[in-house]
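Hi R.,

Here's the chain you asked about this morning:
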Amino acid sequence: GCTMALYLAISSICEKGDTIILPDTGFPYSNVLAQVIGLNVCTYTLMKDQDWEIDLVDLEKTLEKNKDTVKAVVINNPCNPCANVFDENHVTKIISVIEKYEGVALVSDDIYEGMVFPGEEYARFIQYTDKIPIFLCSGISKNFLVPGWRCGWVALMVPDDYKAKFVPKMKAFE
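And the predicted structure, written out as tokens:
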């Protein structure tokens, strides 16, 4: 399902010894997948007292500290297990931080896309930038209410400037 989609996305971006940045509270398999590939894992803080939004100062410090080896930031939206949903304002702020670091991709774990409580605003990262590579990972088990059906996908949105870097590595997506 989406776990395999995450694996395909992360393994397409990263090689052994690279760094990946994960949420400090998030889907546990992302960390496992990073370990299987042999990646260094750093985390960014989710602020419990601010509806689990990403601490953007912490994210930027983590990116800056690891700028020579970081290849991707993984973000869950809506978040598993915190159930928070990032609105358009927060999504655009996250993107503006990541856009500062050339060559860093966003892996958007959207398995719960659109599954929000009434009155909540859901914003997809792919709607707000065309400047960074985004690997959107999702699946049918949650969206189509068929638990146990392990069918997922990765959609790659990549700016022309990055195609030479990512597309040749993506034989699994052909």
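Strands lie at 19-23, 40-44, 46-47, 53-54, 70-76, 105-109, 134-139, 152-157.

Let me know if you need anything else.
M.
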